[in-house]
């Protein structure tokens, strides 16, 4: 039996006339007659008593219609609830990332993903790398982009790139003019220690960037000229772009803001691996597989 079977039989019971029911159901009377014969053959007993053109329910027919109405209502309720879940994002891929990845995700990653047809929607959230990895492990996220220091046994890590500390400065900072190009450094190296006297934006140490910057200054044995305290990398980048100060952080893959990047003059040895993190044993559907491929391609990985 399927929902159509119950719907047709209930409609005949409501109309008590095959012709009227056929009109309501937008089918021919002959097709509806064949349908009734098929259902009664499956049930093994008549559902209707025929008296000319008028139909009345047999005891079995009454039970069939009673339960059929319940099944039809349950199907409608299920359909409505599924639709509400879809509209609330319940069928979306749950993607997590650190706030230093926000511009990369919104400007590069998601547009490339949605270029593929018929992809599932995506639900995004920002957080610290440790919190994101935990959420993937317990099933609150499907995938995340995170810095990895200590791998968790229940997770799969796909390395994307290595990143280290950089000094982020406004795009017209004099430090950019005086920086020196040095072999082995991805950006010009800031000259001297005068930058330590310039206004500095400090990121909270519960973030990877904030903790790494604090270790750097501890090893250096000096403190910057703190002007502004922020809780996340995105706020720090916005403040730098507006000329409020400089900031040391783990280099993000892409930043929309007009900023400059400089390498620090001392060897930091604070590189971290950026990884795509999923739960072990996960079986991705087509949309999640495409998203994983786009992430790899966006980072220049082969696969």
Notes on the structure:
With 303 residues, this protein is α/β, with parallel strands linked by helices. The protein contains 10 helices and 12 strands. It has helices spanning 3-15, 18-25, 29-43, 59-87, 102-114, 129-137, 174-178, 208-220, 233-241, 286-298; strands at residues 48-51, 54-57, 93-97, 122-126, 143-148, 155-163, 165-170, 199-203, 225-230, 247-250, 259-262, 272-279. It has a 5-stranded mixed β-sheet with strand order 4-3-5-12-6, sandwiched between helices. Helix 5 crosses helix 10. It is rod-shaped, with a radius of gyration of 32 Å. The two termini are 46 Å apart. The mean pLDDT is 87.
How far is the first residue's CA from the last residue's CA? 46 Å
Mean pLDDT comes to: 87
* Structural class by SSE content: alpha/beta
- Quaternary organization: single chain
| Helix content class | 40-55%
Sheet with most strands: strand arrangement: 4-3-5-12-6
* Rough outline: rod-shaped
Major sheet description:
5 strands, mixed
Strand-and-helix sequence, N→C? Answer: HHHEEHEHEHEEEHEHEHEEEH
Low-confidence stretches: none
Describe the secondary-structure layout:
Blueprint (H helix, E strand, L loop, with lengths): L2 H13 L2 H8 L3 H15 L4 E4 L2 E4 L1 H29 L5 E5 L4 H13 L7 E5 L2 H9 L5 E6 L6 E9 L1 E6 L3 H5 L20 E5 L4 H13 L4 E6 L2 H9 L5 E4 L8 E4 L9 E8 L6 H13 L5
Parallel strand pairs: 3-4, 3-5, 8-9
Antiparallel strand pairs: 1-2, 5-12, 6-12, 7-10, 7-11
Helix pairs in contact: 1-2, 1-4, 5-10
């Amino acid at each position: 039996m399927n929902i159509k079977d119950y719907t047709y039989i209930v409609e005949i019971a409501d109309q008590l006339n095959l012709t009227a029911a056929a009109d309501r159901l937008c089918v021919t009377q002959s097709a509806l007659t064949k349908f009734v014969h098929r259902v009664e053959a499956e049930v093994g007993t008549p559902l209707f008593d025929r008296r000319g053109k008028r139909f009345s329910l047999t005891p079995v027919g009454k039970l069939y219609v009673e339960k059929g109405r319940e099944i039809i209502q349950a199907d409608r309720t299920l359909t409505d609830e599924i639709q509400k879940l879809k509209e609330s994002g319940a069928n979306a891929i749950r993607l997590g990332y650190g706030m230093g990845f926000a511009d990369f995700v919104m400007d590069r990653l998601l547009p490339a993903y949605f270029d593929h047809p018929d992809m599932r929607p995506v639900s995004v959230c920002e957080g610290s790398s440790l919190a994101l990895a935990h959420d993937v492990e317990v099933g609150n996220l499907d995938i995340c982009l995170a810095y990895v220091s200590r791998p968790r046994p229940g997770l799969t890590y796909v390395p994307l790139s290595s990143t280290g500390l950089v000094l982020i400065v406004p795009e017209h900072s004099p430090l950019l003019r005086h920086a020196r190009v040095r072999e082995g450094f991805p950006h010009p190296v800031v000259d001297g220690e005068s930058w330590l006297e310039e206004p500095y934006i400090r990121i909270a140490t519960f973030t990877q960037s904030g903790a790494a910057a604090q270790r750097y200054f501890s090893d250096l044995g000096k403190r910057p000229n703190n002007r502004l305290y922020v809780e996340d990398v995105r706020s720090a980048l916005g403040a730098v772009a507006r000329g409020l100060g400089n900031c040391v952080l783990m280099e993000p893959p892409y930043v929309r803001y007009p900023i400059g990047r400089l390498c620090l003059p001392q060897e930091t040895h604070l590189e971290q691996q950026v990884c795509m993190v999923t739960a072990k044993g996960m079986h991705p559907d087509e949309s999640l597989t495409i998203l994983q491929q786009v992430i790899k391609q966006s980072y220049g990985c082969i696969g």
